[in-house]
Amino acid sequence: MRSCYIYSGPIRRALHRLKFHGRYRLAQALATGMVEGWTRFGMEADLLVPVPTSSARQRQRGYNQAAVLAQALSERLALPMHPQALRRVRATPSQVGLAQRARRENVREAFAADPQWAWGKRVVVVDDVCTSGATLEACAAALYQAGARSVWGFTLARVILKEERDQKLRL
Questions:
Q1: H-type helices in 5-157, by residue range?
Q2: Which of 5, 48, 158, 159 is the most buried (most CB within 10 A)?
Q3: Residues 6+ apart with CB under 8 A from 154
């Protein structure tokens, strides 16, 4: 899993506007930062796949912010993006406020991948924010089950959890 920024300050505000205030055109500007991160991390892929959102959240927002970011990234990197490669097969409650173990259980088996798109491919799953990595892990499990050769998670931002900060301070 790779993230371009820490989820704070201007990046956090921009993502909130994208995700909760209908400012989907921000994805174009945010994708520029993702391209820089892509290059810095030496990422390689055959296919970009956005994390699927539930149909209820899609209706509520009118779009999937991960798909909007993945599309902008796809255009800039000249890589195919196929949202149909991964689908949400079970609606899940919001992950906000859940502990890491609860997050993993919440999204376990919530996704399924289509071997037609994933088989033998190096897949990069795109999302806006990574908190615990549980969603990206669940997506990766489904893609591996569908025959993906490799799977990476790639997000614009990463939340630094209190436990991680405390551990780094102890080191």
A1: 9-20, 26-41, 55-61, 65-77, 100-107, 115-118, 134-145
A2: 48
A3: 1, 2, 3, 34, 37, 38, 43, 124, 125, 126, 127
Give CA separation, 161 vs 65, 99, 117, 124, in Å. Answer: 22, 10, 34, 23
From the list 4, 78, 6, 66, the residue with the least C-alpha distance to 41 is 4
pTM value?
Answer: 0.89
pLDDT tens-digit readout, 65-86:
999 999 999 999 999 999 999 9
Instruction: Tell me the CA distances in angstroms from 36 to 1, 32, 108, 115, one per residue in order.
Output: 16, 7, 32, 30
